[in-house]
């Protein structure tokens, strides 16, 4: 019962869409009606600029950290990992926004860095290298998160399964991006426009 309560708390925490509120505060817009239509930090970056994007990324990452911290504090490793999955589900499919959320990358980064800092950092560094080389945020994000199960496996089966769950969610949420990458129509990070407004 205790596990279920904290998993629900983590899911509800994920429902707090930083990107949505940044859009409202910075430019009085629903970020889901602009750019890619995604309530995530990359769309905020492209639509509202670097500062707004940074705030969105920070907030979405932080809620991931808080969720896994609570899980570890109140239940140990297993609950920590379950809360990590739950907060990402809450971010991706928030009931308060009619299940139209983000893609979970910033939240996954916050979760991963708390759960296994060094292993997560390796994946992030590889993702950053790909981003600078190819300029595709989606490709960098998919690659970094998809590496998690292979890096986390050294920590045990439950960490591998945890990383696999994060990878599956990331790939599923990026299925449109994957198709555009294959078609050669995916937008590069430098190709965005900026809507008037700022933080």
TrEMBL record:
<feature type="transmembrane region" description="Helical">
    <location>
        <begin position="48"/>
        <end position="70"/>
    </location>
</feature>
<keyword id="KW-1003">Cell membrane</keyword>
<keyword id="KW-0594">Phospholipid biosynthesis</keyword>
<comment type="pathway">
    <text>Lipid metabolism; phospholipid metabolism.</text>
</comment>
<keyword id="KW-0443">Lipid metabolism</keyword>
<keyword id="KW-0444">Lipid biosynthesis</keyword>
<comment type="function">
    <text>Catalyzes the transfer of an acyl group from acyl-phosphate (acyl-PO(4)) to glycerol-3-phosphate (G3P) to form lysophosphatidic acid (LPA). This enzyme utilizes acyl-phosphate as fatty acyl donor, but not acyl-CoA or acyl-ACP.</text>
</comment>
<keyword id="KW-0808">Transferase</keyword>
<protein>
    <recommendedName>
        <fullName>Glycerol-3-phosphate acyltransferase</fullName>
        <ecNumber>2.3.1.275</ecNumber>
    </recommendedName>
</protein>
<keyword id="KW-0812">Transmembrane</keyword>
<dbReference type="GO" id="GO:0043772">
    <property type="term" value="F:acyl-phosphate glycerol-3-phosphate acyltransferase activity"/>
</dbReference>
<dbReference type="InterPro" id="IPR003811">
    <property type="entry name" value="G3P_acylTferase_PlsY"/>
</dbReference>
<feature type="transmembrane region" description="Helical">
    <location>
        <begin position="76"/>
        <end position="97"/>
    </location>
</feature>
<keyword id="KW-1208">Phospholipid metabolism</keyword>
<dbReference type="GO" id="GO:0005886">
    <property type="term" value="C:plasma membrane"/>
</dbReference>
<comment type="similarity">
    <text>Belongs to the PlsY family.</text>
</comment>
<dbReference type="GO" id="GO:0008654">
    <property type="term" value="P:phospholipid biosynthetic process"/>
</dbReference>
<comment type="subunit">
    <text>Probably interacts with PlsX.</text>
</comment>
<keyword id="KW-0012">Acyltransferase</keyword>
<dbReference type="Pfam" id="PF02660">
    <property type="entry name" value="G3P_acyltransf"/>
</dbReference>
<keyword id="KW-0472">Membrane</keyword>
<feature type="transmembrane region" description="Helical">
    <location>
        <begin position="109"/>
        <end position="132"/>
    </location>
</feature>
<feature type="transmembrane region" description="Helical">
    <location>
        <begin position="144"/>
        <end position="172"/>
    </location>
</feature>
<keyword id="KW-1133">Transmembrane helix</keyword>
<feature type="transmembrane region" description="Helical">
    <location>
        <begin position="6"/>
        <end position="27"/>
    </location>
</feature>
């Amino acid at each position: 019962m205790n596990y279920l309560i904290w998993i629900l708390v983590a899911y509800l925490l994920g429902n707090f869409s930083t990107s949505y509120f940044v859009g409202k505060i910075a430019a009085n817009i629903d970020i889901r009606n602009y750019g890619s239509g995604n309530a995530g930090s990359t769309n905020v970056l492209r639509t509202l600029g670097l500062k707004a994007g940074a705030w969105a990324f920070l907030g979405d990452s932080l809620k991931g950290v808080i969720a896994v911290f609570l899980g570890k504090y109140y239940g140990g490793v297993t609950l920590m990992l379950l809360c990590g999955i739950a907060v990402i589900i809450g971010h991706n499919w928030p009931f308060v926004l009619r299940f139209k959320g983000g893609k979970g990358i910033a939240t996954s980064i916050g979760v991963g860095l708390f759960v296994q800092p060094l292993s997560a950092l390796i994946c992030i560094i590889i993702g950053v290298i790909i981003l600078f080389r190819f300029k595709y945020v989606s490709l960098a994000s998919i690659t970094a998160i998809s590496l998690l199960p292979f890096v986390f496996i050294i920590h045990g089966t439950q960490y591998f399964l945890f990383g696999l769950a994060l990878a599956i969610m990331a790939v599923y949420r990026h299925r449109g991006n994957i198709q555009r990458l294959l078609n050669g129509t995916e937008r590069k990070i430098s190709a965005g426009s900026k809507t008037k407004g700022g933080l």
